[in-house]
């Protein structure tokens, strides 16, 4: 093969590869994640919802053979001795108990079911997520009547580099994402209790780094 032709072929191959890669990098853009709102309309209407990772104790009266503890799978379902796939995520324990009664009615006469939860995890839509300059950034299981102070205690407060008074809280209200300013430094360092606010299920708290 002619040497000049070989060199030309190498150049064309390199150019084609570069064009292909540049085309891929410009077109492969992932869509923005959707924040799913909590089902709780206010702090007084909050009810715990079952989520993946929860451990459910299901008691069927007079039927110990179908009772037991079950771990909610990542797909939001559990498997029992009678039914392989029962959707449970997003339901309250009471709602799930009534659903299981309807399912078991096919196999048992007038089943009476009680559901309790251990190892609370809950769905992502109900968890509080704290990111940025918290001492221990993490997702926290929501507890009714939780406040900003409660959340900051759980994450260990702020780092020495945090700008707590420029922190923001993101919340879904009426299907729309809203952003609120919160003053964490005032709350923690100055003891201004007026800076303490109610936290709702699904809230996201972002704590920026201070500019020195």
Automatic annotation (TrEMBL):
The UniProt record lists the keyword Nuclease: no
Pfam families listed in its UniProt record: Poly_export, SLBB
Domain of life: Bacteria
GO molecular function annotations of the record: polysaccharide transmembrane transporter activity
PROSITE patterns: PROKAR_LIPOPROTEIN
Gene3D superfamilies for the chain: Outer membrane lipoprotein wza domain like, wza like domain
Residues annotated as domain Soluble ligand binding: 128-175
Assigned keywords, A-Z: Signal
InterPro entries from the UniProt entry: PEP-CTERM_polysacc_export, Poly_export, Poly_export_N, Soluble_ligand-bd
Domain Polysaccharide export protein N-terminal: 45-117
Identification of the protein by name: Sugar ABC transporter substrate-binding protein
Native organism: Litorilituus lipolyticus
Highest classification ranks of the organism: Bacteria, Pseudomonadati, Pseudomonadota, Gammaproteobacteria, Alteromonadales
């Amino acid at each position: 093969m002619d040497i000049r032709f070989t060199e030309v072929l190498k150049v064309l191959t390199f150019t084609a590869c570069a064009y292909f890669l540049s085309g891929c990098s410009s077109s492969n853009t992932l869509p923005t994640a959707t924040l799913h709102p909590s089902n709780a309309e206010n702090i007084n209407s909050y009810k715990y919802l079952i989520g993946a990772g929860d451990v459910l104790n299901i008691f069927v009266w007079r039927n110990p053979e179908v009772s037991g503890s079950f771990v909610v799978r990542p797909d939001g379902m559990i498997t029992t001795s009678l039914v392989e796939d029962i959707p449970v995520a997003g339901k309250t324990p009471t709602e799930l108990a009534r659903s299981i009664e309807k399912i078991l009615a096919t196999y048992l006469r007038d089943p009476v079911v009680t559901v309790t939860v251990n190892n609370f995890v809950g769905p992502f839509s109900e968890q509080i997520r704290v990111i940025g300059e918290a001492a221990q950034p993490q997702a926290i299981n929501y507890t009714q009547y939780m406040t900003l102070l409660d959340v900051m205690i759980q994450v260990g407060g702020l780092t020495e580099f945090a700008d707590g008074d420029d922190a923001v809280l993101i919340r879904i209200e009426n299907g729309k994402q809203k952003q609120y300013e919160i003053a964490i430094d005032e709350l923690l360092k100055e003891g201004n209790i007026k800076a303490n606010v109610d936290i709702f299920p699904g809230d996201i708290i972002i704590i920026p780094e201070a500019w020195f």
